[in-house]
Specification:
Elements (H helix, E strand, L loop, with lengths): L10 E8 L7 H17 L5 E5 L6 E6 L4 E5 L5 H13 L2
Parallel strand pairs: 1-2
Antiparallel strand pairs: 1-3, 3-4
Helix pairs in contact: 1-2
């Protein structure tokens, strides 16, 4: 989680979408429960939007400078896998 708990230069918005009951979204729900506070404390100006909707697949959208946006599907991923995926997304942008 170290990369997400530091200043995320270039990242303008992080959106997390998932189903509040689906087993396929449980990893993202766990990730949000464990890591939201730490990420927000390290990046107080960063909008982090958490959206729960019935039947929605677990996914994340990251918006960067100049309107560049990347999407990753996080279905059936563990909280640790999600942290690694988001770190790579931020580093590779």
């Amino acid at each position: 989680m170290s990369a997400l708990r530091t200043q995320l230069k270039g990242l303008k918005e992080l959106r997390l979408q998932f189903c509040q009951t689906s087993p396929a979204s449980s990893g993202l729900r766990d990730f949000v429960a464990k890591n939201y506070t730490g990420i927000k404390q390290a990046n107080p100006e960063l909008p982090i939007l958490v959206r729960e909707a019935s039947g929605t697949e677990a996914r994340a959208f990251a918006r960067f400078d100049k309107g560049v946006e990347h999407k990753v599907i996080l279905q059936n991923a563990s909280a640790d896998d999600i942290a690694k995926t988001l770190e790579m997304l931020v580093k590779n942008a």
